[in-house]
Amino acid sequence: MRIDFTPIVRPYFTRIAKRVDYWKGNTERIQRDLLTSHLKRASQTEIGKKYGFAEIANCKDPYKEFSKKVPTVHYEDIREDVMKMIKGKKDILWPGVCRNFAQSSGTSGGKSKYLPITDDSLKGNHYRGGEDAVAHYLNNNPKSHMFAGKGFILGGSFSNTLNIPAGTIHIGDLSATLINHITPLAELVRVPSKKTALLSDWNQKLPALVEEASKEYVTNISGVPSWFLTVLRHILDNKKATSLKDVWPGLEVFFHGGISFEPYRDEYLEITKGLDMHFLETYNASEGFFAVQNNPDDKGMLLIIDRDVFYEFIPVTEPDSDPIPVWEVKPDHTYEMVITSSNGLWRYRLGDTVRISSINPVKIRIAGRTGAFINAFGEELMEDNAERAIAAACHIHNSNILNYTAAPVYAKRNKKGRHQWLIEWDKQPSDIKAFIVTLDDELRKLNSDYDAKRSGNIFLEMPEIVNARKGVFDDWLKTKGSHKLGGQRKVPRLSNSREMMENLLELNKE
């Protein structure tokens, strides 16, 4: 007999969801108090002594002094401090010794970056953010039976690229750290086992995932849409099923994040036919759990302002300007996010850009990365434009993608410039030429600058699509040290240079 614990835990999660009511009109107070708390907690660290956190925390306007004395930083500015923390030094960027680090690739010089995951950030942010996601889902779905079964969580694994002695510290995907430190109670309601979840060899991990998950009564799944799709297809093949309803009749929600869901939506709708399926977006990065979709009818995500992260924003139109606090942002403006958090990141420039969809409370939509755009011809094509356009084209032409990237091809002699798209198909359209026309039309609808440059083929020719062989993006990620399926790895969607595209095209020949 299966026991449904949802009615038992619902009051707890309802209280979590309802605290958002207090946020309205209190964003500034909540965020100011949080910043002051961080300054006091870190006052005796190296960075706290360097900038006088104790004095800042006790002055009349802590935020004003904080923004004046503490500079914004990129990862390379703090790399040396982080390496001290990795070597076991305490009280560097946050009190105590940090023993967990999330590895992420793609920073300057091709070096990996290692982001601190302190005990405080685990308890006060990452796990709390996960609670928020469940709370808002249950709040919007009173008929949910989510806790009548288990959650299938797809994550990455640890790595040892720095040759640190085993057991001293853990370096790898954020998801590996979250799984490794999960409470015994939560372990009872999730799949796969910790041993399987942390396997690094996907030749072993994939069949183990399929075997374990297929045997369980799964009601919810969590992970990155592209990588989860691969696993779910293997499960369907294993069960000789066409819909996940035949595998998990109680499946009801997918908590997704990491990349845009739109290019994969149609495929998920196809493999969940017959289920009353819900899709809830989260913004859970290696640096922190920042936002969650709290209304299924609103694509904006609620910025979580009371979970150990202090937010500032830099207008993308003025990248060299001083950041503004969250209580000063304006709707329909796009900003680069800057965070201060209990993981020891102080005024840290994430490189992520978000568009403010509403305020009081603040809601955001991910716009892309600061370096993910194409503006080789004045077209100012942003990642959000690309994601929405290719999703629309796939829907119209009954096709699906696994991965893609795009870069400019510069004008030569009598040839005009164009955008080149490398696409790894899951289901290729029957007419590629028609797909290109639709993609171009959708981009023109979404972006007036692109539309102007395409007008009359004067500056830009029609886009070009190159079909990618299966696995080429995985191969490219391996060359960047990001070879583990299911981790926090992402393929850059747009690039203003051809370096990445040329590397991929070379791999595509093999």
Account of the 3D structure:
The protein is an alpha/beta fold and 510 residues long. Helices cover 37% and strands 21% of the residues. The chain is built from 19 helices and 21 strands. The protein has a twelve-stranded mixed sheet with strand order 6-3-7-8-9-10-11-16-15-14-12-13, with helices on both faces. Helix 1 crosses helix 8, helix 12 crosses helix 13 and helix 15 packs across helix 16. The termini are far apart. About 1% of the residues have low confidence.
Give keywords:
12-stranded mixed beta sheet; 510 residues; alpha/beta; 4-stranded mixed beta sheet
Helix content: 25-40%
Number of E strands: 21
Q: Give the percentage of residues in beta strands.
A: 15-25%
State the major sheet. Answer: 12 strands, mixed
Structural class: alpha/beta
In the predicted model, the low-confidence regions spanning at least 5 consecutive residues are: 106-110
Give a quick rundown of the structure.
With 510 residues, the protein is an alpha/beta fold. The protein has helices spanning 6-18, 20-23, 27-41, 46-51, 53-57, 62-69, 75-86, 119-140, 174-180, 184-187, 194-197, 202-215, 225-239, 265-271, 383-396, 432-446, 448-454, 472-479, 499-508, and strands spanning 100-104, 113-116, 150-153, 158-159, 170-172, 190-191, 218-223, 253-256, 278-285, 288-292, 301-303, 309-315, 324-325, 334-341, 348-358, 363-369, 373-374, 381-382, 400-409, 418-427, 464-467. The protein has 19 helices and 21 strands.
